[in-house]
């Protein structure tokens, strides 16, 4: 009984690699119809009152339809074999480790981010390089906070990087009140990470100015980050004291001087166990993100399921060939009829 149970279980799970070939099964009823029509044409009708004088049908006569039956069965099994019946199987092959961190990017979008010492501007260069960083870290939970004179969340932490990158690409400076509220930007980023269960929680805080707006003192925000075990990696964008062009509506390109509070940025990084970086151009900024890319990561175990297909065409092929041989033996050895 177990063998039959296993057979029907396999048949119930069976699929076909070439299911379109199963249309060939329609040849079987066509062949049966042709066979019946041909037999009817070969025997003339004659009405008699009794068959007693003709004697009893011979053994060979009783088997006259078997070659056609075996041919139909052979066609059935050969067509099924051509369609390649398969069953799928799978097993847990082990565990893979995916490593990632929970990270919020706090990006300065104040007016000075339109300065053109980065190409085409600081803001556009920062967006592009941040996007390159995210694309390389596919297992990270990434979020984005924007701040100028105030702060707001553009994207909470997500693993949907395609969605995140579209939002990052759309970032513009205009919606926010101008200014540089470093404390508000950092505080909002911390609020998104404080309840995270990840072992590694990071804020990448980028600014090109000094704190001159907002409601939260940057040092208070840094203390909050430390309390929740959040590392803050700070980046000063631009070179302190350097002048660069900035496009001002109605005035064209005017020269503006960069003023950075590097001491504050270093203090925030030190307080939270992070690291301070200075990026005076695009090349240096890429190097900064490359170094951040080597941060500690969170190990995430995932089971790896390996699936494969088991082909079962060979038994059907062999059975089909067997029925062809049986047809041949019956047709020419037992029944002895002409091929049809």
List the helices and strands and how they pair.
Blueprint: H1 2-12, E1 15-16, H2 27-42, H3 59-62, H4 66-82, E2 85-100, E3 102-108, H5 122-136, E4 141-147, E5 151-158, H6 161-169, H7 182-193, E6 201-207, H8 218-227, E7 230-237, E8 243-248, E9 252-257, H9 262-272, E10 276-279, H10 282-292, E11 298-311, H11 313-334
Parallel strand pairs: 3-4, 3-6, 6-7, 7-10
Antiparallel strand pairs: 1-2, 2-11, 4-5, 8-9
Helix pairs in contact: 2-4, 4-11, 5-6, 5-10, 7-8, 8-9
In short:
This protein has helices spanning 2-12, 27-42, 59-62, 66-82, 122-136, 161-169, 182-193, 218-227, 262-272, 282-292, 313-334; strands at residues 15-16, 85-100, 102-108, 141-147, 151-158, 201-207, 230-237, 243-248, 252-257, 276-279, 298-311. By secondary structure, the chain is an alpha/beta fold.
Description:
The chain is an alpha/beta fold. The chain has 2 domains: 8-40 and 56-88 and 313-334, no CATH class; 99-299, Rossmann fold (3-Layer(aba) Sandwich), CATH 3.40.50. It contains 11 helices and 11 strands. The protein has helices at residues 2-12, 27-42, 59-62, 66-82, 122-136, 161-169, 182-193, 218-227, 262-272, 282-292, 313-334; strands spanning 15-16, 85-100, 102-108, 141-147, 151-158, 201-207, 230-237, 243-248, 252-257, 276-279, 298-311. A 6-stranded mixed sheet has the order 5-4-3-6-7-10, with helices on both faces. A 3-stranded antiparallel sheet has the order 1-2-11. It has a two-stranded antiparallel ribbon with strand order 8-9. Helix 5 links the parallel strand 3 (102-108) and strand 4 (141-147). It is rod-shaped. The two termini are 40 Å apart. The mean pLDDT is 85.
